[in-house]
Amino acid sequence: MYLKDVGRNLLKARVKNNNEWSALTEVEFIVDAQSASAQNLSISEIHYRPLAPTLEEIEAGYNDRSDFEFIELVNISSRPVDLGSIEFSGGIKFDFSLVDSNRTLLPGERCILVNNLPAFVMRYGDAIDPSLKILGEYDGNLNNDGEQLIVSNKAGNVIIDLTYNDGKEWPESADGMGYSLIKINPEKTISDHSPNNWRSSSSVGGNPGKSDETSFQLWMMENNMQDTLSDADKDGLTALTEYAIGTDPKKVSPESGFEIRVNELEIEELVQEFLIVDITRRVGADDVNFKIQMAQRLNEWVDLIIPTQIIKSINNGNGTETVSYVIGSLNQIGTEMYFRQVLTLD
Ligand SMILES: [Ca+2]
Ligand SMILES: [Ca+2]
Ligand SMILES: [Ca+2]
Ligand SMILES: [Ca+2]
């Protein structure tokens, strides 16, 4: 007997005993797939506060934003992963063992769970790829103020434990402007769920079952460029910089993607002047590492450890987002200091 399908195969069998056939029994085999674990599975997108329903959607009976929620998981390993042994046990409830088909994810493949399937289908309509794996509807809602989400296996081991939030260190645009929360490089930041590893989606409504990560190589090809350091429009920004900060490589760009300012902030009940850096980047350019360096004297650059602290993260609606970090108080740092941004490709 051969089982050909990767993932779940259900066999139905009867046993003959003294000319009596037994009742039909079902046996489940998982072929060439690993069970989901903390090493091979990641939550890649959370659409916890979708846009409010339109008039048509309300008329169809979907009068709550939460009807349009979804959550996405991705197989970050190089082998097929079967989800049949896991469940969402905290935040929302969903038992993957009750899913009959489509619950094995190939390497890099994604699936989603939705709040309300007909609502989701109505809103996303033609944008739904026929290959999109919608495994079902979960119980409960993705809390609009953030909450702890727990995925565990049947043995009781926690596989994913993440707490998202709508606070100021989290992408503001995912909190009611219609963007979703996207995990940056889920395969690299697997168990680190700090807000620095999340951004807003590049477009409103997010990208269920897909990724909106862009590629520098592709962008170079599309713009007919070969040299990473070229500066065809002579605005002082290299090709890599223009890609990273979301500017046009063929037009003089006034932006630098990077601004330092002083602002009064109250932190732990102390009002002080703080140095703040605003970094603007192309949404989805997750293949670029952003680093800020500072120096008291030129040529003595040291890495500024980012994250320091995010105080604002907003999608600008034009393909870029701006993330503001507090570097430190002016008292600590002094007023004579140099800063520069260092961009590297992954
Ligand atoms: Ca919600
Ligand atoms: Ca996605
Ligand atoms: Ca340029
Ligand atoms: Ca330019």
What's the helix and strand layout?
Elements: E1 7-13, E2 16-17, E3 20-21, E4 25-31, E5 34-35, E6 41-47, H1 55-59, E7 70-75, E8 81-82, E9 86-90, E10 94-95, E11 104-105, E12 110-114, H2 117-124, E13 134-137, E14 148-153, E15 158-163, E16 181-183, E17 198-200, H3 216-222, H4 239-245, E18 258-267, E19 270-282, E20 288-295, E21 302-304, E22 309-315, E23 320-329, H5 330-333, E24 338-345
Parallel strand pairs: 5-8, 12-13
Antiparallel strand pairs: 1-4, 2-3, 6-7, 6-16, 7-12, 8-11, 9-10, 9-14, 14-15, 16-17, 18-19, 19-23, 20-21, 20-24, 22-23
This protein binds calcium ion (4 copies).
One calcium ion (CA) is lined by residues 44-45, 72, 207, 210-211.
Compact summary:
This protein has 346 residues and is mainly beta. It contains five helices and 24 strands.
Helicity range: under 10%
Order of helices and strands: EEEEEEHEEEEEEHEEEEEHHEEEEEEHE
**How many angstroms does the end-to-end distance come to?**
46 Å
Label the structural class: mainly beta
Ligands: calcium ion
Query: How are strands sequenced across the largest beta sheet?
Result: 13-12-7-6-16-17
When the domains are counted, the total is 3
User: Rg, please?
Assistant: 24 Å
The fraction of residues assigned to DSSP E strands is 35-45%
pLDDT under 50 segments (min length 5)? none
User: What does the main sheet amount to?
Assistant: 6 strands, mixed
Oligomer: single chain
Question: Can you describe what's shown?
Answer:
This protein is mainly β and 346 residues long. The chain folds into three domains: 1-32, no CATH class; 34-200, no CATH class; 216-345, Immunoglobulin-like. The chain contains five helices and 24 strands. The protein has helices at 55-59, 117-124, 216-222, 239-245, 330-333, and strands spanning 7-13, 16-17, 20-21, 25-31, 34-35, 41-47, 70-75, 81-82, 86-90, 94-95, 104-105, 110-114, 134-137, 148-153, 158-163, 181-183, 198-200, 258-267, 270-282, 288-295, 302-304, 309-315, 320-329, 338-345. The strands form seven sheets. A six-stranded mixed beta sheet has the order 13-12-7-6-16-17, with no helix packed on it. The chain has a four-stranded antiparallel beta sheet with strand order 10-9-14-15, with no helix packed on it. Strand 18 (258-267) and strand 19 (270-282) form a beta hairpin. The longest helix is centred in the middle third of the chain and has 8 residues, at 117-124. It is elongated. 32% of the residues are buried. The mean pLDDT is 91.
